[in-house]
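Allow me, if you will, to draw on your knowledge of protein folds for a short while. I have a record of one protein: its chain in single-letter code and its fold written as discrete structure tokens. I should value your view on which stretches of the chain appear to form regular backbone elements. Thank you for your consideration; the sequence and its tokens are set out here:
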Amino acid sequence: MQEKDRAEVLEMMQIFYASDVVIHKADDETLQKDISDCVGDCPYVDGYVFEIEGEIAGYGIAATGYSTEFGGVCIWLEDLYMKPEYRGHGIGRKFFEAVEEIYTDAVRFRLEVEKENAGAVALYQRLGYNFCTYDEMSKEI
């Protein structure tokens, strides 16, 4: 990733994490680390940059884990952001299709979504995602 591209991805991440669709905000240091991990050799996370006609249109991040419920690799679709002018062009759908082709050993794909984010919910449901019926808890260290 070129430095110009890195700066543009960071800017998109800042917009995404400042929006109402994200509950837990992330500071610039964390976002910079996320980018470094995506382009570095961290085995748990992969970053994707979407382009249309040579212009960066958005980004996505996928993280690998393990699901004991389903006995195999679980892929968490952590981030999916499209610049407003590129929304509705099918990039999100293509990302989900590509992720399923890339992670052929996955037994489960998961993501987080705010129910108020109607556009995202509609896309995810069209792609076969359903709401989980249990709450999740976390502890940040």
Notes: The longest helix spans residues 3-18. The chain has a mean pLDDT of 92.
